[in-house]
Amino acid sequence: MTTPKVSIGMPVYNGEPFIREALDSLLAQTFTDFDLIISDNASTDGTEAICQEYAAKDKRIRYIRQTENRGATANFQFVLDEAVGEYFMWAAADDRWGELFVEENFNFLTQNFSYIGSISQSYTQSGEIGAVAGSTTISNPDKWDRVEKFLVNPASNARYYSLWRRSHLANLKLSRYDYVAGDWAIISELLKSGMINCIGKEIQFFKGAGISANPVRYFDSVRKNFLEFLFPFFFFSQYLLSSGFFVRKPYFTIKMIFLWNYGGFVPYWRQRLGTILWRVVKLSDVAAYVDHNVSDLAKSKQALKIYLNKWKNRFKIANRNALR
Hints:
The chain is of the alpha/beta class. The protein has 13 helices and ten strands. The chain has helices at 19-27, 47-57, 72-82, 101-111, 143-152, 182-191, 215-222, 227-230, 234-242, 245-248, 250-273, 283-293, 297-322; strands at 6-12, 34-40, 61-65, 87-90, 95-97, 115-119, 122-123, 163-165, 195-198, 204-206. The strands form two sheets. The protein has a seven-stranded mixed sheet with strand order 3-2-1-4-8-6-9, with helices on both faces. Strands 5-10-7 form a three-stranded mixed sheet.
């Protein structure tokens, strides 16, 4: 059996609602010399039956079901470790690709050896395109300038799902980056060894249904200690300060660390606590409500109690919605 040129790794957990669409778009690729490794993280829905069905129809698919849920990071590492192709790409089970995606990016990499990864123009479900979705060419000659260009606007970081030269991923241990924005740290590391291309053709689409779309669910799922309640990008900040980047770009590093942590703190706590803690309830508002509804002290106390209970109930509803 010949070794495929490209290995595609698809980690999945409970992908029944969308995995058929993802598999169909991968199997429809014009480039056919690939194997597809699916690692099912002990799904509890119909994912296994769907994958077994597709594996029975296409010999390029290798389906492995984990005996227990190993966590997302370990599942991503597993499909990478199982890869045999000279080129590799992760494939999210809720994304889909145009039929030229693998072919176009494979051809580019075989002709441009200074590039270690290549992706195509990307879209998200919310309408993000190109740079906003995290698919842009980063080709600065200096490696630190490449990292800086990336960190100016990591965005949704679609480039994580580029087609890569697998040799550059060989020593990658994803467990080292299992924290908020760990994928940014991975791309930063990869950019030290080469450039990343964006073809600019509209042949890839991201659904945007991942956990990172919900700040509370995302931060809570990867948080390691209490400091991250105040500094959501704490470990990524540590990475930058110790990676050599800070020595070369000190002002930029400090500025971005502040902006990221502030930008993560605000949406997290707004959603976690609900809008009540982000509104200033002026005493004049309370007074106006009381004055409008009552005329004596006893009724004033009752009206104030009703007013405060109304806000208390709003808080409970907002916080309950934030936890969904």
